[in-house]
Design goal:
- This protein is mostly helical.
- It is built from 8 helices and no strands.
- Helix 4 packs across helix 7.
- About 20% of the residues are buried.
C-alpha cells in the first residue's frame, strides 16, 4: 500500500506502487521496449524502433491502463490525448495490442491492466461502430 506521500512500502514491488499512485508515470525499461518492438508487425515495428514518439505512445496507453483515468486526463507530457486514443483504437482493431501484451507476459503487473483496457475497448459500443465502419469501407 502506498503511504500518504505516494511512496511504496519497502516490501511492495514498484509496479504495484505505480498502480496505486496515478501521479507516477509508467516507463518501460529498455528490455521491455525491445521485447515489444521485436514482436510488432514489420512495418509497425520498423517505425516503432525509429521513433521515440511510439515509445511515448505505448507508455501513455500504459498510464491509462494502470491509473484507470479517462483518456482526456492523460498528462500533456504524452502528447494530445485524442491522438493517443485514436492510435490506441487502431492498434486494438489491428490486433497489435495482443502482440504487446504477449511480449510483456513476464511482467503481469504491466501486461494485465493493458489487456483489460484493450478488452474493455473491444467490447464497447464504440469499437463495434468503428469496426462496422471499417468493414463498410472495404
Amino acid at each position: 500500500m502506498a503511504n500518504i506521500l505516494g511512496n511504496a512500502r519497502p516490501e511492495e514491488p514498484l509496479e504495484v506502487a505505480f498502480e496505486r499512485n496515478s501521479s507516477q508515470r509508467q516507463r518501460l525499461s529498455n528490455e521491455q521496449w525491445l521485447k515489444i518492438t521485436n514482436t510488432l508487425p514489420p512495418l509497425v515495428g520498423a517505425r516503432a524502433r525509429n521513433s521515440p514518439r511510439t515509445r511515448s505512445f505505448v507508455e501513455a496507453v500504459l498510464w491509462v491502463s494502470h491509473t484507470g483515468a479517462h483518456w482526456n486526463q492523460l498528462p500533456r507530457e504524452f502528447g494530445m490525448w485524442h491522438s493517443n486514443y485514436v492510435r490506441f483504437t487502431r492498434w486494438a482493431h489491428d490486433g497489435i495490442w495482443k502482440l504487446v501484451v504477449e511480449a510483456l507476459k513476464d511482467t503481469p503487473a504491466t501486461a494485465e491492466p493493458l489487456n483489460g483496457l484493450v478488452n474493455r475497448y473491444l467490447a464497447s459500443r464504440h469499437a463495434h461502430l468503428v469496426r462496422n465502419y471499417i468493414l463498410q469501407k472495404k
